[in-house]
Amino acid sequence: MHATFPLLQHTTFPAIDRRRLDILQVNLGYKCNQTCLHCHVNAGPTRKEMMQRETVDLVLRFLRAAGIGTLDVTGGAPELNEHFRYLVSEARALDVHVIDRCNLTVLELPGQEDTAAFLAAQRVEVTASLPCYLEDNVNRQRGDGVFQSSIRMLRKLNELGYARPGSGLVLNLVYNPQGPTLPPGQARLEQDYKKFLGEQHGIRFDRLFTLANMPIQRFGSTLVSKGQFGPYMRLLKDSHRDENLETVMCRSLLSVDWQGAVYDCDFNQMLHLPLRFGGRSRVNLAELIGQDLEGNPIVVAEHCFGCTAGQGSSCGGALG
After folding, report:
1. According to the model, what pLDDT value does residue 309 have?
2. Domains of the chain, with CATH numbers?
3. What confidence score (pLDDT) does residue 76 get?
4. Which runs of E-coded beta strand occur in the chain?
5. Which of 104, 187, 226, 280 could link 150 by a cystine bridge, Cβ 3.0 to 4.6 Å?
6. CA gap 291, 303 in Å, rounded
């Protein structure tokens, strides 16, 4: 795999700093049952990195101390971590809102048959990957059979009450472009998704989030192999909008890896660019308990243009 960090570290991205911390995003490990072409984590079935119970307890201790309202759980496939349900149930007992970033197909694996029901019982918001509403496009990006498995699991979530008006069970979908292009307009694409999935498959969902592909890990390596890295970076930089700097996710989100190390965002985590605080170049979550990060400079590199290009991109979809 081609390393992209040497191509990203020298940057003209504007200096930005942190605001009030609202979201703790925790990566429970890089193991996944899929190997997607656009994956910025380079996740897959052979990855061994998984958060242990001690670190999960540290996450819960931080949530209590910081009074954070939202826990955003990601991976890999976070449900494959043996402590996933413990973390979710304990966070919900603290009245913390929990988001599960789910690839859908994991819910069909042996041993995961009741995970969807667990998520519904805990009133977890599900943000599910579905990079297109057309079967061929999804399977090309994520593997044979992924689309039909995803549809089955979306139906199961709907049956449990997800996206039903008045249920309070939120189901969002995530779109990624097929290649080195910016996502289309989020509002219009959401309409297309809802119309097609509703009419063809009887699926309902709440929101569609459009995310730009980051030029790192597996996707970045593919760009280098195809000679597309330079053109894609020019597209991102030429499409930069200063107004998106106000709402980029790193200003209110903290990213924690499977070992408890802290980063400004999940993308920095994958580039091994840790949060800098108190003169230290690598910070563990335990060191931040009781600390105020507001005003702390955010570590930036060229990939950050992926969040500010066009309509903007974040874990919550378009910025503008």
Report:
1. 96
2. 5-308 (3.20.20)
3. 87
4. 23-27, 70-74, 97-102, 125-129, 171-175, 207-210, 253-256, 262-263
5. 104
6. 28
Q: Per residue in 190-213, is it b (16+ CB within 10 Å) or e — as a string?
A: beebbeebeeebebbbbbbbbbbb
Instruction: Evaluate whether 42 touches 218 at the Cβ level (below 8 Å).
Output: yes
| Cα–Cα distance measured from residue 11 to residue 268, given in angstroms and rounded to the nearest whole number | 14
* pTM tops 0.85, yes or no: yes
41, 78 in Cβ contact below 8 A?
no
> Side chain identity at 90, as an amino acid letter?
E
Q: Which residues of the chain have pLDDT under 70?
A: 1-2, 36-42
**pLDDT (0 to 100) of residue 137:** 84
Quickly list H helices, 43-166. 53-66, 84-93, 115-121, 135-142, 146-159
pLDDT at 37: 63
Give the whole-angstrom CA distance, residue 307 versus residue 320.
Answer: 11
At CA 199, angle to CA 202 and CA 141, rounded to 5?
80
CB 42 within 8 A of CB 1: yes
Q: Which residue has the tokens 């899929």?
A: 34
